Amino acid sequence: MAINEFIKLLDRGVNSWNQWKENHPDIRGVDLSEIQLEGIDLSGIDFSMVNLRGARFREVNLTSANLRGADMSMANLRGTNLSGANLSSAHLSMICLSEANLSGANLSGANLSGADLRGSNLRLANLDRADLSTAKLNLCNLNGASMIGAILIGSNLSRAELKEANLAGTDFSRANLSEADLSHSNLNVSTLAGTDLIGATLVDIDLSESNLSRANLIGANLYRANLCGCDLIGADLRGANCSEAYFIGADLSRADLSRAEFTSANLSKANLSGANTETTEFQDAILPDVW
User: Fold this and answer.
1) How many angstroms from the chain centroid is the CA of residue 186?
2) 12: CB partners within 8 A, 6+ apart
3) pLDDT of amino acid 58
4) What angle do CA 194, 196, 198 make, to 5 degrees?
5) β-sheet bridge partners, residue 282
6) Which of 220, 242, 247 minimizes the C-alpha distance to 232?
7) To the nearest 5 percent, what fractions of the chain are helix, strand and coil?
8) Which of 137, 152, 154 is nearest to 100 (CA)?
9) pLDDT in tens, 95-146
10) How far apart are CA 220 and CA 183, in angstroms?
């Protein structure tokens, strides 16, 4: 079918499209690349495995849409409502989804590398194992999202909201998380090597066994955070609030802890060799036997 025939089918409504898809399960290669749609309701539509490369959607309702395995690379869905949509295993590299509503969407395994998601609502979204490397996620709402094993190398998440998110095993290497709020989130066994966490809120966060070597944590709030067994070699914690945090067995060798607050923190068995502690506050802290 030519693209004009597909458009006529879409004009007949979602039910007609979905019925056609159901009646033709063996058809492959539905090509809607570079299609332009505006102001229509496509909620619940089945676009699974459809080629939407370079598509332009404006004020289109795609709530609860099935976009599993669709190719949406270089598409522009700015401001589109995708809440509850299934985008698992979709190809979304270089896509523009800024200001889109993706709350509760399933993006597990999706390729979102280089995607523009600035200001988008991804609250409670499933991004497990998704590739978000170099993606723009500034000011995004990712509260309560699941991003287990996701790749965010070099991504920009400055001032993003990630409260109570599950980020276990996620790779944030060289990402920008400055002024982001990750309070009460799980980042167990994650990679944040060379990550920018300047002014980030990390209250009551689980970073145990994570790699934060050379991470920039200047002015970060790590109150009651769990950093047991962390690699913090060469990390910059100047002026950070680490009060009542747990650093049991952490490696802080060559870290800069000047003006950092470790009041009532637990640093037993931590490695502080070569660390700058001249102006560090350790009042009531549990310190390692040798340092």
Assistant:
1) 12
2) none
3) 87
4) 140
5) none
6) 247
7) 5, 20, 75
8) 137
9) 998 988 999 999 999 999 999 999 999 999 999 999 999 999 999 999 999 9
10) 11
Q: Residue 99's closest CA among 85, 117, 84, 115?
A: 117
Query: Can you tell me the distance from the alpha carbon of 97 to that of 221, in angstroms, rounded to the nearest whole number?
Result: 30
58: phi then psi, degrees, rounded to nearest 5: -125, 120
Check if the beta carbon of residue 157 is closer than 8 Å to that of residue 174.
no
Distance from C-alpha of 166 to C-alpha of 8, rounded to nearest angstrom? 43
21's tokens = 């898809």
Helices (H), 84-169: none
The C-alpha atoms of residue 270 and residue 244 are separated, in whole angstroms, by: 15
CA 9/CA 259 separation, integer angstroms = 66
pLDDT above 80 for 27: no
Residue 102 is encoded by which pair of tokens?
């993706």
Reported as type and span, the H/E element at residue 38 is: strand 36-38
Dihedral sign for Cα 277, 281, 284, 285, please. negative
Residue 209: count of CB within 10 angstroms of its CB = 17
Alpha-carbon distance of 12 to 33, in angstroms, equals: 20
Which residues lie below 8 Å from residue 155, measured CB to CB, with a gap of 6+? 132, 133, 134, 135, 136, 137, 172, 175, 176
Rounded (10°) CA dihedral 67, 72, 76, 77: 10
Question: For tokens 């619940």, what's the residue?
Answer: 44
The rounded distance, in Å, linking the Cα atoms of 79 and 11 is 22
Is residue 211 classed as helix, strand or coil in its secondary structure?
A: strand
Q: The pTM is what?
A: 0.89
Please say if the pLDDT value at position 245 is more than 90. yes
Say yes or no to pLDDT of 220 above 80. Answer: yes
pLDDT tens across 252-290, in order? 999 999 999 999 999 999 999 999 999 999 999 999 987
